Amino acid sequence: MQNNxxxxxxxxxxxxxxxxxxxxxxxxxxxxxxxxxxxxxxxxDEGFIxxxxxxxQNKSQKRQVTYNPSNHIAHCSYKMFECKGILCCHIxxxxxxxxxxxxxxxxxxxxxxxxxxxxx
Length: 120
What we know:
Layout (H helix, E strand, L loop, with lengths): L3 H13 L2 H16 L1 E9 L2 E8 L6 E8 L4 E4 L3 H5 L4 H7 L18 H6 L1
Helix pairs in contact: 1-2, 2-4
């Protein structure tokens, strides 16, 4: 069952992204909620290295997410955010447990938002 913070994250994404980009986000978010789980956390100076097991399409792949809890910055070995501007299910798996009500602003790529679409 989803908690309120998880619902808030999804609602916030639906308000900022264009329909097409929201559906991409929602697909990753669904995978984070249903197919990903945190296997291991290692404490480092800047936060944690978190091993996320991704069971999407029954492949059971492991990804490494480096997460800094002081600023909610995360980097994943999958690199989807860097390539497509949408957070991957591995980072979302980590963020959904942090009771955030909104996506951190550094993960909102303007070109993918409703605001950008209306300006241009």
